[in-house]
Amino acid sequence: MQVAVLSGAGISAESGVPTFRDAETGLWAKVDPYEISSSDGWRAHPERVWAWYLWRHYMMGAVQPNNGHRAVAAWQDYADVHVVTQNVDNLHERAGSKKVYHLHGSLFEFRCDRCQVGYEGELPEMPEPVETVDPPRCVCGGMIRPSVVWFGEALPEDAWQRSVEAVTGADLVVVVGTSSIVYPAAGLPEFALANGIPVIEVNPERTPLSDSATVSLREPAAAALPTLLQRLPALLD
Ligand code: APR
Questions:
Q1: Residue intervals in the chain for CATH 3.30.1600.10
Q2: pLDDT digit string (tens) for 125-146?
Q3: pLDDT tens-digit map of 16-56
Q4: Was 80 annotated as part of a binding site?
C-alpha cells in the first residue's frame, strides 16, 4: 500500500514549534509574514530576515519529534510512505521517516543568494532571539540565505515532482496539520480526490478541505495518527 502524508505546521505544534496562523501562538502573530518571509523583505532588510530564520534553525535543536511524527515513521513497516511536508523543520526525518519532500524548503539548508551555491560554512551563534544578525557572505560576495521558499518564489522542482508522483500513486492520502490555504501544496489533496484516492484530514479545526475530504477527523495529530492505520477499515468502509 502506498501512503502519501501531506503535513503542515500543525504536526509540529505538539513538539512546541509554533504554527503560522494559529491566532495567539502563530509565528505570524509576532511578525509580518510578508516582511520576514519574502524576497522583498530579504532585499529590504536581510539582517532581520536572517536573524528570524537563524532563531528558528536553533530553536529546532531544543524540540523533539512527537507521537504524530513517530506514527508516520512507524507506518513505513506496513506501507510505502512518502511524506510531503510544507514544514521547514527536520522532525519527520528525526522521527525516522525516510522519504520526506520539503515543498517549502528547509531550515537546515543554506545557499548564496547570488551564485546559488550551497553553504556549508559556520553559522553565527544565537544564544537567544535577536532582531538583527548580518548574514554570512559567500566567496562571490553574495549573502547567505536560508534555503526556504519565500512568498512569491517557485517551489523546488525536485520536491514538487516527487510530491506529485507520491500523491498520484497513493492508495491513501493523509493531510495533517495544515490550514490547506497555501497553493500549490493545497491542490494535492484536491487532485487525489478528483482521481478517486481517499483523503483523510487530521486537524482540530475545520479547513477548506474539511467538507471535501473523504474523512475529516477533528483531532490533534499526536492523538489521531498512532491508531489511524488500525482505524482505516472503519473510517473508509
Ligand atoms: N494537530 C493537527 N493540526 C493542528 C494541531 C495539532 N496538534 N495544532 C494546530 N493544527 C492545525 C491548525 O488548526 C491549522 O489548520 O495546523 C494548521 C496550521 O496551519 P498554518 O499555521 O497555516 O500552517 P501551514 O498550513 O503549514 O501553512 C502552510 O504557509 O506560511 C506558509 O510556508 C508557510 O508552509 C507554510 C504554509
A1: 18-62+105-148
A2: 887 778 889 999 999 999 999 9
A3: 987 776 655 555 556 777 788 899 999 999 999 999 899 88
A4: no
The C-alpha atoms of residue 217 and residue 174 are separated, in whole angstroms, by 11
- Distance in Å, CA 21 to ligand 1 centroid: 7
What does the block give as the cell for 181? 490555504
- Angle at 115 (CA atoms; ends 109, 120), nearest 5 degrees: 35
Sign of the CA dihedral running 134, 139, 143, 148: negative
Distance 18 CA to ligand 1 centre (A): 9
pLDDT value, residue 29: 58
Mutate to test the pocket of ligand 1, among 12, 15, 20, 24 (most ligand atoms within 8 A of CB): 20
From the list 30, 158, 159, 24, the residue with the least C-alpha distance to 85 is: 159
Q: Say whether 92 is catalytic.
A: no
Please give the CATH topology (third level) of the domain spanning 1-16+65-104+155-237. Rossmann fold (3.40.50)
129: its cell numbers: 532571539
* pLDDT for residue 232 is more than 70: yes
- Residues 18-62+105-148: name the CATH superfamily: SIR2/SIRT2 'Small Domain' (3.30.1600.10)
